Amino acid sequence: MKKIFSILFVFALGFVTCNAQRQLQGQKGLELGAGIVSGEKALHDFFYTRLGITLNRAKGNYNFGAFEYMRKQHTFEGISIPVQSYMAEVGHSLYLLGDWRRTISLNMGLSAVGGYEVINNSENVLPSGAIIKNEDSFIYGGGLNVSLETYLGDKLVVLLRGHTKYLLGTSLERFRPGGGIGVRYIF
Questions:
Q1: pTM of this structure
Q2: How far is CA 149 from each of CA 51, 52, 56, 93, 165, rounded to the nearest angstrom?
Q3: Within 13 Å, how many C-alpha atoms sit on residue 134's CB side?
Q4: CA-only gyration radius of the chain, Å
Q5: How far apart (Å, rounded) are the C-alpha atoms in residues 23 and 79?
Q6: N or C: which end of the chain has fewer CB within 10 A?
Q7: With b meaning 16 or more CB within 10 Å and e meaning fewer, what string describes 159-176?
Q8: Nearest alpha carbon to residue 88 among 45, 130, 141, 134
């Protein structure tokens, strides 16, 4: 009889799927993302790319740090003026909503941002002879982001991300909203 129960038990295990626990405290993740920032031009004129790392905390919350490259293309009398921002961001994201298996979650985060902004490749004079009064500068400020995250597997997360940054030290726009998509690998 014990032999029959053992065989049935092993047979039944074949029909049960196992999932690893997700969002455990201490897990780390490597994140890659890209998206668009506010603007009325084409995608290649207003975009950002991002490389970050996350560290899970209790209850689905996590700390994050990221490096971000943002490019915006402005025009003046038909002349393109590129604005490039190189930023580092550190912050904390709070778990807001999700299902009990943690396959999908909605998070909101606050961050501190700092970096450097380059206007027209540091050239102040345009080909038409016009002078750009804006100068390259160090920028700093804060950010707010909302992300919808879903697990494709136990170690792979896809996220939709909306964010806005408020930057000081810049002579251009201070609010910089954007949205994008990213992938996070949990290790």
A1: 0.82
A2: 16, 15, 14, 12, 20
A3: 17
A4: 23
A5: 48
A6: N
A7: bbbebbbebeebeeeeeb
A8: 141
109-163 per-position pLDDT tens digit: 999 999 999 999 888 888 888 888 888 999 999 999 999 999 998 899 999 999 9
d(CA 12, CA 159): 35
Which of 90, 71, 84 has its CA nearest to residue 116? 84
Q: Which residues of 78-92 are buried (b: 16+ CB within 10 A; e: fewer)?
A: eeebebbbebebebe
Q: Which amino acid appears at position 163 of this protein?
A: H
CATH code matching the domain that covers 2-186, chosen among 1.10.3720.10, 3.10.180.10, 3.20.20.370, 2.40.160.20: 2.40.160.20
Phi first, then psi: what are they for 3, rounded to 5°? -65, -40
E-strand stretches of 120-174: 137-151, 156-168
Q: Nearest Cα to 37, choosing from 1, 4, 85? A: 85
Backbone angles phi, psi at 111, to 5 degrees: -150, 160
Helix (H) or strand (E) holding 4: helix 2-13
CA angle, 71 then 125 then 174, to 5°:
40
